[in-house]
Amino acid sequence: MNLPVPLERLVASLSRLPGVGEKTATRLAFYILREKNNYAEELSAALLDAKSALRYCRRCHHLTDNDLCVVCVDTTRHSGPICIVESVPDLLAIERTGDFSGTYHVLHGVIAPLRGIGPDDLRLRSLIERLKTSAPPELIIATNVGVEGEATALYIKKVVQPLGIRVSRIATGIPMGGDLEYLDQITLSRALSGRRDF
Amino acid sequence: MNLPVPLERLVASLSRLPGVGEKTATRLAFYILREKNNYAEELSAALLDAKSALRYCRRCHHLTDNDLCVVCVDTTRHSGPICIVESVPDLLAIERTGDFSGTYHVLHGVIAPLRGIGPDDLRLRSLIERLKTSAPPELIIATNVGVEGEATALYIKKVVQPLGIRVSRIATGIPMGGDLEYLDQITLSRALSGRRDF
Prior knowledge:
Two copies of one chain form a homodimer. Chain A is an alpha/beta fold. In chain A, strands 4-3-5-6 form a four-stranded parallel β-sheet. A two-stranded antiparallel ribbon of chain A has the order 1-2. In chain A, 41% of the residues lie in helices and 9% in strands. The longest helix of chain A is centred in the first third of the chain and has 15 residues, at 39-53. In chain A, strand 3, helix 4 and strand 4 (103-106) form a beta-alpha-beta unit. Chain A is built from seven helices and six strands; from the N terminus they run H-H-H-E-E-E-H-E-H-E-H-E-H. Chain A folds into two domains: 5-53, Helicase, Ruva Protein, domain 3 (Orthogonal Bundle), CATH 1.10.8; 56-176 and 186-190, Dna Topoisomerase Vi A Subunit, Chain: A, domain 2 (3-Layer(aba) Sandwich). The interface between A and B is large, with 53 and 53 residues.
């Protein structure tokens, strides 16, 4: 396309973002170059700053710019259950509900033998350490509801059982506003088998 | 949402991109932080580099990292027509057709009284200078086909006429694959009045 090299490089770099193809990347690049108030410099600094300042919470592996994350510094939450999630976005989704007052443990992945990811690639050892030193009233496994998330949940249950801690799994069933007609069979089967007295 | 400050800042900065809301920005930020091979650093450098190295071609105001752009350094193109476009993406669109062998003149805007943009806010003075020193065989006005683009085209025609240069306007009509049934009335009227012997 005969673009100047620095522009080509910016387009190539932006193209690596998820959901951004070459066309969108070009549009974004032109926008960034035209934008006032030193936007390019601001974004550049924000990238470097986020990358260098952010790390994982020593206790739960949530993102933080400190030793402990915003959840773990709140000691009133330490007596609650521990909720195990796959990723930081999953943690944030649960935080947004405002219904959970315990702490988290972020695995940073799921067991996925096909992709060569085993239990040792997850933050599981630190979970066991945590459970040994502080016994929570409950362990809520909130990995995603799919083959890999389910396998990971089963694995954690097996590993944790000897410690005598109550283990639960987030409920599967029909989502709010879900239409029975259009739901997949597995979700509907689970909703049936998981029915509760009413 | 209680995100660490550096992450908040990155999300806010990414949210300024066109078509990127807070949710997408958060997703992009997590992607960037997780991505290997120093992606954050690479993107950050590409931004700064593009911003500092890129400028406008002295002759036609296309983007370049030199004094003249890739089109203007090719002196074989200097004898061809001059094509006037609103923006660099428009120039690139015409270059992609491979059907134009002249040079360009990028206005960097259109006359838009409602947004307070007058002729003096465009790169029009340098166009007049160019036309006085080198008389091109033709001036093709390729501003977009809308109220502002049309008004700008008319204005340029009026200003250029005294110089005795042939002025043309890109054709309006039915786009390839266009269905008469679904076209707007104005396009269809234009296609009718612009009909050619067949």
